[in-house]
Amino acid sequence: MASIIDAFQESFHDHHSLTKYFIFAIPVYYCVDLYSKNDSSFYAVSAIVFILLFGFMLKCTSNVRNGKNYVLPSLNIFSMFWEGIKGLVAIGPILALFSWLATIICEFLSNYFPDPNSIIVWKFIIWGLSASVMMTGYLCYARNFKISDAYNLKTICNSSVDVFVGVLFMIPQILIVDAVIIAPVTYLIWLFFGIPHPIAVFFWSMCLIFNLSLTGHYLAQIDYEAIAVNEKENDKII
Question: Which residues of 85-116 are buried (b: 16+ CB within 10 A; e: fewer)?
Fold first, then answer.
């Protein structure tokens, strides 16, 4: 079973982990600073940072899934940016398609379910199924960085529900980890410096990067349990 403890320990104790979290937190902090100043360049910079961080998480997932003895990628920011671009090009269509389908279906059902509670349930189901397909495509691509893998319909049909269940279990676990780490440190910063404060913002930026590594690691575990196991079982049947 996927373990958040393993993800935490291996992400935290990885080689030069704190240095990497510090360096990758700098562009995040810069984005927050631009936003606080209402700088017009915020949107352009945030798009670049999003691509960078997406590449970072992709590499974390790939490293763990392929059995590397490390989780975090190198400090080559340009390499991470390039991986992010390739990843978005690869799985961008499936993200756009199923986001569009989920939106259209939800709008259609809202005409037949006027009760707000009912439509909330249906929206959760529809967006959950769409997200499961998108996450499965992400995991298939992250394994070998092949675009064709992200559109393996057989794997998506067989494993998407298992992936969705795994992600549902992942979310509260990461929230608990965040509460344990972020809350005490934030409280100390508030006592000595007050909030908001640049030190607090930079700490939260580092926590965001750490969360991406945790998520990438945990998703790789889900990949192994939900996708690889199903593929092995199908091969045995054949």
Answer: ebbbebbeebbeebeeebeebbeeeeeeeeee
